[in-house]
Amino acid sequence: MNNPLSVDRYIKLITEDELDIDAIKKWFQCIVKYAPSGTLKTISIDDKPKGVSLIHQSDGRHSYLVPLTRDLSDSEVGKIVKKFAKLNLVDSFDVETNETRLSAGDDAGISIDASKHLALCTTLAKQKHEDWVRERTGAGWRYGTTFDADEKTHPLLRPWDQIPDRYKQPDMEWPQKLVSILNDQGYAIIPQVELQKLLRDLRG
Protein backbone atom coordinates (compact mmCIF):
# COMPACT_ATOMS: atom_id res chain seq x y z
CA MET A 1 0.00 0.00 0.00
CA ASN A 2 1.12 3.46 -0.76
CA ASN A 3 2.33 5.07 2.45
CA PRO A 4 3.31 8.68 1.63
CA LEU A 5 5.80 10.60 3.75
CA SER A 6 6.44 7.44 5.80
CA VAL A 7 3.19 7.85 7.73
CA ASP A 8 2.97 4.56 9.60
CA ARG A 9 -0.67 4.80 10.63
CA TYR A 10 -3.34 6.72 8.78
CA ILE A 11 -6.85 6.85 7.40
CA LYS A 12 -7.24 8.15 3.87
CA LEU A 13 -10.15 9.18 1.66
CA ILE A 14 -9.58 8.43 -2.05
CA THR A 15 -11.66 10.04 -4.81
CA GLU A 16 -11.53 10.30 -8.59
CA ASP A 17 -12.16 14.05 -8.61
CA GLU A 18 -10.58 16.70 -6.43
CA LEU A 19 -12.79 17.73 -3.51
CA ASP A 20 -13.75 21.29 -2.71
CA ILE A 21 -12.62 22.77 0.57
CA ASP A 22 -16.00 22.18 2.24
CA ALA A 23 -15.94 18.45 1.48
CA ILE A 24 -12.34 18.19 2.71
CA LYS A 25 -13.30 19.91 5.96
CA LYS A 26 -16.29 17.58 6.38
CA TRP A 27 -14.02 14.54 5.88
CA PHE A 28 -11.59 15.80 8.53
CA GLN A 29 -14.42 16.76 10.91
CA CYS A 30 -15.94 13.31 10.48
CA ILE A 31 -12.68 11.72 11.66
CA VAL A 32 -12.34 14.20 14.54
CA LYS A 33 -15.89 13.43 15.65
CA TYR A 34 -16.03 9.66 15.22
CA ALA A 35 -12.44 8.46 15.71
CA PRO A 36 -11.54 7.73 19.36
CA SER A 37 -10.02 10.58 21.34
CA GLY A 38 -6.25 10.80 21.03
CA THR A 39 -5.94 8.92 17.73
CA LEU A 40 -5.27 11.95 15.50
CA LYS A 41 -1.83 13.51 15.26
CA THR A 42 0.12 16.11 13.31
CA ILE A 43 3.30 15.43 11.35
CA SER A 44 6.14 17.66 10.24
CA ILE A 45 6.77 18.41 6.56
CA ASP A 46 9.93 20.20 5.46
CA ASP A 47 8.24 23.06 3.60
CA LYS A 48 5.57 23.65 6.25
CA PRO A 49 6.33 25.84 9.28
CA LYS A 50 3.78 24.00 11.40
CA GLY A 51 2.72 20.38 11.73
CA VAL A 52 -0.06 19.24 9.39
CA SER A 53 -3.08 17.10 10.21
CA LEU A 54 -4.30 16.38 6.67
CA ILE A 55 -2.32 15.73 3.50
CA HIS A 56 -3.72 16.04 -0.04
CA GLN A 57 -1.95 14.09 -2.75
CA SER A 58 -2.78 13.40 -6.39
CA ASP A 59 -1.45 10.58 -8.57
CA GLY A 60 -4.33 10.20 -10.98
CA ARG A 61 -6.75 9.95 -8.08
CA HIS A 62 -6.96 12.32 -5.14
CA SER A 63 -6.22 11.22 -1.60
CA TYR A 64 -6.85 13.02 1.68
CA LEU A 65 -4.75 11.39 4.39
CA VAL A 66 -5.08 11.98 8.12
CA PRO A 67 -2.17 10.69 10.28
CA LEU A 68 -3.06 8.57 13.31
CA THR A 69 -1.34 7.64 16.56
CA ARG A 70 -2.57 4.03 16.40
CA ASP A 71 -4.35 1.56 14.13
CA LEU A 72 -8.13 1.84 14.14
CA SER A 73 -10.26 -1.23 14.80
CA ASP A 74 -12.61 -2.60 12.16
CA SER A 75 -15.64 -1.09 13.87
CA GLU A 76 -13.93 2.31 14.28
CA VAL A 77 -13.09 2.48 10.57
CA GLY A 78 -16.54 1.25 9.62
CA LYS A 79 -18.23 3.93 11.68
CA ILE A 80 -16.24 6.71 10.01
CA VAL A 81 -16.97 5.33 6.54
CA LYS A 82 -20.70 5.07 7.20
CA LYS A 83 -20.96 8.53 8.73
CA PHE A 84 -19.07 10.16 5.85
CA ALA A 85 -21.11 8.26 3.25
CA LYS A 86 -24.33 9.59 4.78
CA LEU A 87 -23.19 13.16 4.10
CA ASN A 88 -23.60 12.47 0.36
CA LEU A 89 -20.67 14.70 -0.54
CA VAL A 90 -19.00 12.26 -2.96
CA ASP A 91 -20.66 9.89 -5.42
CA SER A 92 -17.99 7.21 -5.10
CA PHE A 93 -14.99 6.89 -2.82
CA ASP A 94 -12.60 4.52 -1.09
CA VAL A 95 -11.39 4.78 2.49
CA GLU A 96 -8.00 3.24 3.12
CA THR A 97 -6.01 2.73 6.30
CA ASN A 98 -2.50 1.37 6.61
CA GLU A 99 -4.14 -2.04 7.10
CA THR A 100 -7.04 -2.29 4.67
CA ARG A 101 -9.49 -0.55 2.36
CA LEU A 102 -13.26 -0.10 2.28
CA SER A 103 -15.25 1.08 -0.70
CA ALA A 104 -18.43 3.08 -1.05
CA GLY A 105 -20.58 2.55 -4.14
CA ASP A 106 -22.25 5.03 -6.44
CA ASP A 107 -25.11 5.49 -3.99
CA ALA A 108 -22.59 6.79 -1.41
CA GLY A 109 -23.48 3.95 0.92
CA ILE A 110 -21.91 0.68 2.01
CA SER A 111 -23.79 -2.30 0.59
CA ILE A 112 -23.61 -4.16 3.89
CA ASP A 113 -22.50 -2.91 7.30
CA ALA A 114 -18.89 -1.81 6.80
CA SER A 115 -17.40 -3.20 10.00
CA LYS A 116 -19.17 -6.56 9.60
CA HIS A 117 -18.14 -6.70 5.96
CA LEU A 118 -14.51 -6.04 6.86
CA ALA A 119 -14.64 -8.68 9.60
CA LEU A 120 -16.12 -11.20 7.15
CA CYS A 121 -13.49 -10.46 4.49
CA THR A 122 -10.68 -10.73 7.04
CA THR A 123 -12.02 -14.04 8.35
CA LEU A 124 -12.17 -15.43 4.81
CA ALA A 125 -8.61 -14.22 4.11
CA LYS A 126 -7.41 -15.93 7.29
CA GLN A 127 -9.16 -19.17 6.33
CA LYS A 128 -7.66 -19.03 2.84
CA HIS A 129 -4.19 -18.57 4.34
CA GLU A 130 -4.67 -21.48 6.73
CA ASP A 131 -5.84 -23.70 3.87
CA TRP A 132 -2.77 -22.67 1.84
CA VAL A 133 -0.45 -23.46 4.78
CA ARG A 134 -2.00 -26.92 5.20
CA GLU A 135 -1.70 -27.62 1.48
CA ARG A 136 1.93 -26.53 1.32
CA THR A 137 3.04 -28.34 4.49
CA GLY A 138 1.23 -31.43 3.29
CA ALA A 139 3.33 -31.26 0.14
CA GLY A 140 6.55 -31.12 2.16
CA TRP A 141 7.05 -27.38 2.42
CA ARG A 142 8.24 -25.72 5.62
CA TYR A 143 8.88 -22.26 7.02
CA GLY A 144 12.09 -20.52 5.98
CA THR A 145 13.30 -16.95 6.08
CA THR A 146 13.50 -16.95 2.26
CA PHE A 147 11.55 -18.58 -0.55
CA ASP A 148 13.44 -21.56 -1.98
CA ALA A 149 11.66 -23.90 -4.38
CA ASP A 150 14.42 -26.52 -4.17
CA GLU A 151 14.48 -26.57 -0.37
CA LYS A 152 10.70 -26.03 -0.23
CA THR A 153 10.88 -23.14 2.20
CA HIS A 154 8.57 -20.14 2.28
CA PRO A 155 8.57 -17.14 4.71
CA LEU A 156 4.75 -17.05 4.88
CA LEU A 157 4.33 -20.61 6.11
CA ARG A 158 3.37 -19.30 9.53
CA PRO A 159 0.15 -18.80 11.48
CA TRP A 160 -1.99 -15.86 10.34
CA ASP A 161 -1.16 -13.77 13.42
CA GLN A 162 2.57 -14.06 12.70
CA ILE A 163 2.65 -12.89 9.08
CA PRO A 164 3.32 -9.20 8.25
CA ASP A 165 0.30 -6.92 7.94
CA ARG A 166 0.97 -6.21 4.26
CA TYR A 167 0.16 -9.86 3.49
CA LYS A 168 -3.12 -9.77 5.41
CA GLN A 169 -5.01 -7.55 2.98
CA PRO A 170 -8.44 -9.17 2.50
CA ASP A 171 -10.33 -9.36 -0.78
CA MET A 172 -13.06 -6.79 -0.17
CA GLU A 173 -14.99 -7.51 -3.39
CA TRP A 174 -15.48 -11.29 -3.59
CA PRO A 175 -17.62 -11.68 -0.40
CA GLN A 176 -19.93 -8.90 -1.60
CA LYS A 177 -20.24 -10.61 -4.98
CA LEU A 178 -21.23 -13.80 -3.17
CA VAL A 179 -23.89 -11.91 -1.20
CA SER A 180 -25.21 -10.41 -4.45
CA ILE A 181 -25.35 -13.84 -6.10
CA LEU A 182 -27.28 -15.28 -3.15
CA ASN A 183 -29.67 -12.32 -3.25
CA ASP A 184 -30.24 -12.87 -6.98
CA GLN A 185 -31.06 -16.52 -6.24
CA GLY A 186 -33.75 -15.50 -3.77
CA TYR A 187 -31.76 -15.95 -0.56
CA ALA A 188 -31.39 -13.36 2.18
CA ILE A 189 -28.54 -12.99 4.67
CA ILE A 190 -29.48 -11.49 8.02
CA PRO A 191 -27.64 -11.38 11.35
CA GLN A 192 -28.35 -14.29 13.69
CA VAL A 193 -29.77 -12.01 16.37
CA GLU A 194 -32.30 -10.62 13.88
CA LEU A 195 -33.23 -14.14 12.79
CA GLN A 196 -33.81 -15.20 16.40
CA LYS A 197 -35.98 -12.14 16.99
CA LEU A 198 -37.98 -12.87 13.86
CA LEU A 199 -38.52 -16.47 14.96
CA ARG A 200 -39.64 -15.31 18.42
CA ASP A 201 -42.10 -12.89 16.86
CA LEU A 202 -43.51 -15.63 14.64
CA ARG A 203 -43.91 -17.99 17.57
CA GLY A 204 -45.47 -15.28 19.71
**How many domains comprise the coordinates?**
2
Low-pLDDT windows of residues = 105-112
Can you identify the CATH class of the largest domain?
Alpha Beta
Q: Separation of termini?
A: 52 Å
Q: Please name the CATH topology of the largest domain.
A: Alpha-Beta Plaits
The overall pLDDT, averaged over residues, is 81
| β-strand number | 7
Percent helix range: 25-40%
Q: Which term fits the overall shape?
A: flat
Main sheet: strand order = 2-3-1-4-5
Strand content of the residues, in percent? 5-15%
The assigned CATH architecture of the largest domain is: 2-Layer Sandwich
Q: What Rg do the Cα atoms give?
A: 20 Å
H-E order = EHEEHEEHEEHH
Task: Give a description of the structure.
- This protein folds into 2 domains: 4-104, Alpha-Beta Plaits; 114-203, Globin-like (Orthogonal Bundle), CATH 1.10.490.160.
- The chain contains 5 helices and 7 strands, in the order βαββαββαββαα.
- The protein has helices at 21-34, 74-86, 114-138, 174-184, 192-203; strands spanning 10-15, 55-58, 62-67, 93-97, 101-104, 142-143, 153-154.
- Helix 1 runs antiparallel to helix 2 (74-86) and helix 2 (74-86) crosses helix 3 (114-138).
- The longest helix has 25 residues, at 114-138.
